[in-house]
Structure formats: C-alpha cells, structure tokens
Design brief:
Layout (H helix, E strand, L loop, with lengths): L10 H21 L6 H14 L3 E5 L2 H11 L6 E6 L5 H8 L3 E5 L10 H14 L3 E5 L11 H10 L3 E5 L7 E2 L10 E5 L13 E5 L2 H11 L21 H32 L4 E2 L6 E2 L5 E4 L5 H10 L29 H9 E4 L7 H18 L1
Helix pairs in contact: 1-8, 2-8, 3-4, 3-7, 8-11, 9-11
The structure holds pyridoxal-5'-phosphate.
Length: about 375
C-alpha cells in the first residue's frame, strides 16, 4: 500500500523549525508579552530587510493587510479599484467593505495575472461613464507569480492611481531580481498557514517605502490611536498580529529563501514532465515564483473527470478558483471590463492545482507526474 500524498504537507517544515519556535513560545509564555511583544518588532525589522522595504506593518491577516493601505489612502464610495476577477474573494472584499467599487479586470491565459489591455478597457469604461474616480489598481500575484508591475505602474501613473500589490500568495516572488514593492505603493501579504511563508494561525503584513502612509496604517491597526494611546484620532480597527504568530514567522523566514529555491526546483520538474499532457501556469524568464500553488489547465470539459481519475490514483487535487468573482452572488453587480471577462471564465472551468510544497521529494513527485499522464490518457 503506497503512502497517501498530502496536497500541502507542513510536517517536514515544522520538524525543521520546531525547537526554535518552541524556545520563542516559552519565552513569550514566561514574559506574557502576547500583544505587540518584542518578537513583533523583531519580525518587522527582519521583513524590511528581506523585502528591501523601509516600513513593515505586521497585522492580523492578509485581509487586514489589504484593508489598511486602502483605508489609509481614504478609499471611499465613488472610488474605482481595479481588481482581477480570477482571484480569492478578499482582494475585492476589502474594496467593497470601504464602500468603494471593485472594477473587475480579466487576466492572461498563460500567466493567469492581470491583463493590461483589459485594465485599459476597464479604465476607458470608467472614464466614459464618468461616475467613478479611478483610484487604485490591485494586481494579484496569483499562485505566487508576480504581476507585470512595471507596466501596471506606468498605467497607474498616467491616471494618478495608487498601486496596491496583493502579494498574499506571492511574497518573495521577484521580477528581474525585484520584489513587488519596487513598483507598488504598498505590498500586502498573508501568513495564513498554507501560504509559502505561513504562521500557525492568521497573520499578515503590509510593506511600503512611504513613511507617512506607514504612520497612518500603524494608527489604523490599533483603533486609530494618536500619540496618546487613548486619544483616537481616526476611525481604525484591531489589526494587530499576535506575538506568538510573529515568533513563528521569524523562524520560518530564516529558511524561506531555501524553500523558495526548492519550490522553483519542484515546479521546473513538473513543468518539464507535464507540458505535453496539460498546460501549466507559465513563468516568464527572469521571474522567481513562490509557487503557492502549482496549477495546470485541463481543457475541453475534461477537468472534473481528470480530478476523479487523479483521486482514484491517490493524488489530491484542488480547484482554485471554480468561479471568478464577477460571477459570484456578492460581486456580480460590480462592473467588469468591457462587460465580459472570457479568460477568467475559461480558467475557472479549466484550472486544477497539484500537490506542492517545499518538501515534496522526487519519488512522490514522480508518482504525481505518472498519475497526471495516466489520468489524461484515461479522459482523452
Ligand atoms: C489573493 C489573496 N488575497 C488575500 C488573501 C487574504 O489573506 P488572509 O486569509 O490571510 O486574510 C488571500 C488568502 O487566502 C489570497 O489568496
């Protein structure tokens, strides 16, 4: 009987960092500094260094990390924030929570990231209708791969818009050696446990080089507090990161570069072995992805049968995402570029993610690769 394959196996990583994290936990238990303890500050400093950014604001989740900069910029009703439709709900949710309008943009069929022509079409729609003010673009680093920030920056500058990177899945990804913050006004990430850099609960962070923005976000993170903690100068929220979670991320950050390399190696092997049978997410030259998911396209209505066949062979697969946001009940009334997002629709019908984590050994990966080939033969 073969060992069952995990979709994401956090066990080997936990074994690697367990002792160091437990030592930190012990110290936190002993001192009782559960909220904004010294580990939070240590983590923020380490993340600034890793990300090459001047300011890091740790927070309670990736969703908080998106909400904080939007709230700090004063995004409000009447503002348009351009968001890809093929993403997790949180990207658009934070915009709608502030009463602003997410305007859905299509994505590219090979990289699955924001399509600049569709962004331009959405901007033209908004300008023509004249009801909304273009305020912000939010590229999403889908499955760990950075969007085309250089081009997005150019378009955003031409329209006086902010760029907020939703790097919830892609913190650590680079384009020609640069992370998203090289171009974006703010970068948000999530430390949800299954993310490439995850904690053991909820957590997130925002990075920026803008000290004024950082100061407002720090205030918003703690109920809009002013210089005096009980003098609230703006409406804020509770978005602090637990000290215990900060302790986890500090230790995992030490091994993160090594893990990104492992993910790149595993993804390269998958792509070399699978490209004839299915269509993997394409990674352009000069880019490093964190491969939060390894996702392929199975066309012609065969995806569900393929997944059933994979399951029969003991290989778990997951669909991210089965319905683009512009088709979902909570979001379908918001505008979509040109009224139609064909690539997002197509991807939702075709994508399927395979097991991926930094500790996937070659023998297990070979089993998965063989299962993909056998399943594709079975459904053809
Ligand atoms: C693209 C994207 N944005 C935002 C989030 C929100 O992160 P969190 O779950 O930490 O709030 C996620 C996490 O699932 C995500 O994948």
């Amino acid at each position: 009987m073969q060992q069952p394959i995990a979709f994401i196996d956090l066990g080997p990583q936990r074994d690697r960092v367990r002792e160091r994290i437990e030592a930190r936990f012990k110290r936190i238990f002993d001192t009782g500094a559960f909220i904004m303890g010294p580990d939070v500050e240590e983590l923020e400093t380490a993340l600034c260094e890793f990300g090459g950014m001047r300011e890091t604001i740790s927070c309670g989740s990736g969703t908080d990390a998106l909400l904080l900069p939007l709230a700090a910029w004063g995004i409000r009703p009447g503002d348009a924030v351009f968001v890809p439709s093929f993403t997790f709900a949180a990207s658009a949710e934070v915009v709608a929570m502030l009463g602003a309008t997410p305007v859905f943009v299509d994505c590219l069929p090979h990289t699955f990231n924001l399509d600049l022509d569709s962004l331009q079409a959405a901007l033209d729609d908004v300008r023509r209708e004249g009801k909304l003010r273009p305020a912000c673009v939010m590229p999403v680093d889908l499955f760990g791969q950075a969007a085309d920030y250089e081009s997005v920056r150019r378009i955003a500058d031409a329209h006086g818009m902010k760029v907020l990177s939703d790097a919830a899945q892609g913190f650590g990804a680079t384009t020609q050696g640069h992370m998203a913050g090289h171009w974006a006004d703010a970068v948000a990430t999530s430390f949800y446990p299954a993310k490439p850099l995850g904690c053991y609960g909820d957590g997130g962070m925002v990075q920026t080089n803008d000290a004024d923005l950082a100061a407002v976000m720090r205030s918003l993170r703690v109920h809009g507090s002013g210089a005096d903690r009980y003098d609230n100068v703006r409406i804020g929220m509770n978005a602090r990161m637990d000290t215990l979670q900060a302790a986890v991320v500090i230790e995992k950050l030490q091994i993160f570069p090594d893990e990104i390399e492992a993910r790149m190696r595993i993804a390269r092997r998958y792509t070399a072995a699978l490209s004839g049978a299915v269509t993997p997410q394409a990674l352009p030259n000069g880019m490093v992805s964190t491969w939060a998911q390894y996702t392929v396209r199975v066309p012609d209505g065969r995806r569900d049968a393929f997944m059933t066949e994979m399951k029969r062979q003991g290989v778990p697969t997951v669909i991210y995402y089965g319905k683009p946001l512009h088709r979902q009940s909570a979001y379908q009334h918001f505008p979509a570029a040109g009224g139609d997002l064909p690539v997002s629709d197509e991807l939702s019908r075709e994508v399927v993610s395979l097991p991926m984590h930094a500790y996937l050994d070659e023998a297990t990966q070979n089993r998965i690769i063989e299962a993909v080939h056998a399943s594709m033969r079975a459904v053809s």
